[in-house]
Amino acid sequence: KLLTSVNGYVRGYNLQLSGTNKEYNSPRTCDQNPLLNKCKENNKLTVKTYLQGFYSGNGHMRNTLFDLGMSLDSTATDSVNINLWRVSNLSSSVPSYSYRTLLHNDGNINIDLPESSCGENYYIAVNHRNSIETWSATTVKIRDSISYDFTNSLNKAFSDGFNNPMIEVENGVY
C-alpha cells in the first residue's frame, strides 16, 4: 500500500487529507476512510486555574498587578508561565511551547497558539513564581479553540497517587 497525503489551506483552515491506496499498482484508488485534520490558522487555548494565596472567594482572585499599578488591565492578578509538552517530547528539558502570560482575576489565561501546534497532544503545565508547578492529568489535543479547567476537579491535575496535587480553595473549587 502507498500512503498519500495532501496538505492545503482553505478559508482559514489548514487541511490535511491522507489515505492509503487500495492496490499498490493503482495510485488513483484511495480507501473510503481518509483522515481529515483541520485547524484554524489561529488556535486559542484557555486555561483556568486559581492561585491559593490570591484567591478571595466566589471564583475570583485579587487584582494584584492592577492594584500595584503594574498593569493597566483591571483584571490582572499575576503573570504565570504556561508550558505545553508534546507527548513525544517529554524527555526534553525544554517544553514544546512556553508562554509567559497574564492570569486574570477569574482564573482565566488566554493564549494564541501557532499553527504548528495543530493536531498534536500536549500536557499543560502551569508555573507561577510562588507555587508548585502543576501539570494536567491528561493530554489535550490542539484543535481550534480549546480549554482546560484545573479549578473544577482535583482529578484535572497530575497526581503521584499519594499527595493531593492541588488545594481546595473553596468547597469543590481547586
Describe this structure in words.
This protein has 174 residues and is mainly β. The protein has one helix at 64-67; strands at 3-10, 13-20, 35-40, 43-48, 55-57, 60-61, 76-86, 97-104, 108-113, 121-127, 134-135, 140-141, 145-149. It is built from 1 helix and 13 strands. Strands 7, 8, 10, 11 and 12 form a 5-stranded antiparallel beta sheet that branches. A 3-stranded antiparallel beta sheet has the order 1-2-3, with no helix packed on it. It has a 3-stranded mixed beta sheet with strand order 9-4-13, with no helix packed on it. The protein is globular. A hairpin with a 2-residue loop joins strand 5 and strand 6.
- The tally of helices reads 1
- The rounded distance between the terminal residues' Cα atoms is 50 Å
Biggest sheet statistics: 5 strands, antiparallel
Overall mean pLDDT stands at 84
Fraction of residues in helix: under 10%
Radius of gyration: 20 Å
Strand content: 35-45%
Structural class: mainly beta
